[in-house]
């Protein structure tokens, strides 16, 4: 046994079981399609160390989306399948189970969400079901870890079945018989959560409910972010880090090359964390004291909403609006993820069925959805001039989103497909799961973003020292000054923007811009080109040709938006 | 009386009799457990020919208006 595959319908808890089996940490959420790429880990059974693969959820072995294609492809080289089945939706899940049993591969079933069957009024006779299906079945609960030990112990019992089924209707007939024999239902009372489910999906109550949730989500994100900065991170930097850096600066000698790179420019003989632009001053202050608090608060709120199961409901409510952009409601989930970081957002567009949809969604995300790192900087920097101006930046981005969606939908051939998704039940988020997910996202920010921020600061200091920036500034002056009304020195921000958007916005700080210039500058920075990490994932997902198209659209949008804002404001 | 899924009123339950769709779409719809012989209850229907949400078995599904029109259900005549 070298390779174990975890296969099942979307949102049945494969990732939770994967994490239990391997100890690997993976993102688990309560909506279909949270795993779009297969994840692998290793587990230990006695002396053996087989590889376990968490396969993206699929309804059938005849794939209808990219994520499902991955699943079918994996099946070719696995040794054993753990078929994860949602015990509360036995009948629907068995369709995939039977298709698996038709294949020439040993199968064992994890009857997951076992704990939920009781309050749903479902009784499943496991012995009977085992006899009917002819493979071992273990009741499990991935979230609490119940049944996992038994699952591992019984893994060697996994059996091939090679059912001979000739048609879909024959399969459904067999499934009907199996469920009728092994499952009995009793009446259950509506719970409070189920009432809330109803409220949030009916249009008359659902829309106000959505507005309240969104308002509070942003309010809490901002509240936590602002307070973390004001009471923890800024004091830490001012009281502890500043004196240390001042000493280092004296040691390195003012005006020396090393001092310029590490500490940066002294403002009135002092270090200014947001203006000095040294590696250990601004290079650390921007990602840690200005961005990290917002990353923390955003992902905390998002994680809770994800685990509660709210996102698919919001997606259904947004379906109408999204159709005007050539998308259906579910495309709003990658967009919501992108408010945190565009990289997982663009990866999540794999849940969309058609290429046209994927292209539109990825383009809209790349150009008009600001990631949290960037938003935090815009709030921090533009916010100093008044909340009104922050609102102008974000409204401009939103208007661009709408306009671009409408235009792309009109000019790209094809129509928008319709939504067809299952809506998961609400579940009370578990603190441990939420914290683990939050920690994974924060550490990936520190691991992936922090080095790039430092590289960006280093790079721009070198370009300054070599006077290359001055050359670039002169070349691009006609666009910068002529069209956008910015000083030509803003080129340094645009240059760094190819690497990271947060530092790029930060570089507008020392330029002594007027409020209008600051608004134009930060809006242009948001739209002209994605950061390098987003750029790479766009190429991977769309291919070079489509990526070039996106790039052309971006440049055009940036040119126009900058001009219009410069003219209107 | 046979009507389509969009005509079912919120709260009303019907028996699915037929899915009038091509092979591919039919499969996608059926894989969610929506198939002839199953009881379906309408939960809500969104404005401007928006998605229809239904409950089937223990599962809630949101389905586009056009797709929902292709699903025929039988209800008791009133």
Give keywords.
heterodimer; A: 569 residues; alpha/beta; two-stranded antiparallel ribbon; 25 helices; 9 strands; 61% helix; B: 78 residues; alpha+beta; six-stranded antiparallel beta sheet
SSE diagram, text form:
The complex is a heterodimer of chains A (569) and B (78).
Chain A: E1 3-8, H1 14-22, E2 39-42, E3 51-54, H2 66-75, E4 80-86, H3 90-101, E5 107-112, H4 114-120, E6 122-124, H5 126-133, E7 137-139, H6 148-154, H7 168-182, E8 183-185, H8 192-201, H9 203-252, H10 257-262, H11 282-308, H12 311-317, H13 319-323, H14 332-338, H15 342-347, H16 355-368, H17 372-382, H18 387-411, E9 420-423, H19 431-465, H20 468-483, H21 491-497, H22 501-506, H23 515-527, H24 532-542, H25 544-568
Parallel strand pairs in A: 1-3, 1-4, 4-5, 5-7
Antiparallel strand pairs in A: 2-3, 6-8
Chain B: E1 2-4, E2 13-19, H1 23-31, E3 39-45, E4 52-56, E5 59-63, H2 65-69, E6 71-74
Antiparallel strand pairs in B: 1-6, 2-3, 2-6, 3-4, 4-5
């Amino acid at each position: 046994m070298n390779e174990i595959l975890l296969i099942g319908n979307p949102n049945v808890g494969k990732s939770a079981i994967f994490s239990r089996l391997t100890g690997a940490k993976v993102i688990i959420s309560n909506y279909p399609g949270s795993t779009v790429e297969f994840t692998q880990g290793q587990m230990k059974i006695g002396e053996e160390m087989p590889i376990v693969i968490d396969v993206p959820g699929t309804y059938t072995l005849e794939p209808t989306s990219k994520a499902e294609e991955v699943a079918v492809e994996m099946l070719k080289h696995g040794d054993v399948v753990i078929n994860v089945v949602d015990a509360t939706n036995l009948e629907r899940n068995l369709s995939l189970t039977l298709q698996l049993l038709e294949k020439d591969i040993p199968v064992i079933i994890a009857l997951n969400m076992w704990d939920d069957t009781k309050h749903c009024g479902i009784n499943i006779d496991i012995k009977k079901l085992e006899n009917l299906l002819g493979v071992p079945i273990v009741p499990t609960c991935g979230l609490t870890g119940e049944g996992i030990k038994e699952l591992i112990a019984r893994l060697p019992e996994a059996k091939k079945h090679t059912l001979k089924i000739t048609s879909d209707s024959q399969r459904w007939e067999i499934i009907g018989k199996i469920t009728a024999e092994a499952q009995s239902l009793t009446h259950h009372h509506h719970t409070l959560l189920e009432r809330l489910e109803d409220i949030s999906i009916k249009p008359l109550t659902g829309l106000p409910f959505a507005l309240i949730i969104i308002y509070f989500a942003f309010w809490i994100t901002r509240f936590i972010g602002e307070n973390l900065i004001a009471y923890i991170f800024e004091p830490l930097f001012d009281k502890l880090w500043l004196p240390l850096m001042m000493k280092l600066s004296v040691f390195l000698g003012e005006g020396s090359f090393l001092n310029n790179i590490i500490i940066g420019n002294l403002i009135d003989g002092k270090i200014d964390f947001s203006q000095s632009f040294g590696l250990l001053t601004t290079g650390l202050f921007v990602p840690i004291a200005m961005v990290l608090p917002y990353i923390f608060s955003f992902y905390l709120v998002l994680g809770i909403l994800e685990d509660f199961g709210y996102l698919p409901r919001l997606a259904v409510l947004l379906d109408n609006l999204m159709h005007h952009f050539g998308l259906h409601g579910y495309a709003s989930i990658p967009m919501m993820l992108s408010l945190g970081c565009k990289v997982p957002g663009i990866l999540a567009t794999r849940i969309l069925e058609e290429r046209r949809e994927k292209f539109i969604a990825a383009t809209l995300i790349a150009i008009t959805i600001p990631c949290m790192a960037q938003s935090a900087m815009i709030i921090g920097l533009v916010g100093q001039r008044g909340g009104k101006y922050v609102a102008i930046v974000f409204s401009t981005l939103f208007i661009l989103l709408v306009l671009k969606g409408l235009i792309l939908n009109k000019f790209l051939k094809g129509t928008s497909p319709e939504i067809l998704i299952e809506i998961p039940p609400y579940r009370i988020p578990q603190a441990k799961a939420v914290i683990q997910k939050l920690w994974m996202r924060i550490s990936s920010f520190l691991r992936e973003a922090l080095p790039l921020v430092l590289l960006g600061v280093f790079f721009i200091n070198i370009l300054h020292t070599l006077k290359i920036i001055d050359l670039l500034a002169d070349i691009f002056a006609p666009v910068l000054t002529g069209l956008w009304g910015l000083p030509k020195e803003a080129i340094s921000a645009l240059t760094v923007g190819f690497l990271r958007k947060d530092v790029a916005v930060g570089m507008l700080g020392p330029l002594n811009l007027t409020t209008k210039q600051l608004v134009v500058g930060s809006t242009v920075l948001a739209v002209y080109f994605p950061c390098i990490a987003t750029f790479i994932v766009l190429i991977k997902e769309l291919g070079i040709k489509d990526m070039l198209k996106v790039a052309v659209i971006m440049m055009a949008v940036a040119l126009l938006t900058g001009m219009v804002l410069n003219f209107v404001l | 009386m046979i009507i389509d899924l969009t005509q079912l009123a919120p709260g009303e339950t019907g028996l699915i009799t037929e899915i009038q769709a091509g092979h591919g779409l039919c499969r996608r719809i059926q894989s969610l457990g929506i198939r002839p012989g199953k009881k379906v209850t309408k939960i809500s229907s969104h404005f401007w020919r928006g998605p229809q949400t239904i409950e089937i078995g223990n599962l809630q599904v949101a389905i586009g208006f056009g797709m929902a029109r292709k699903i025929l259900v039988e209800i008791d005549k009133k």
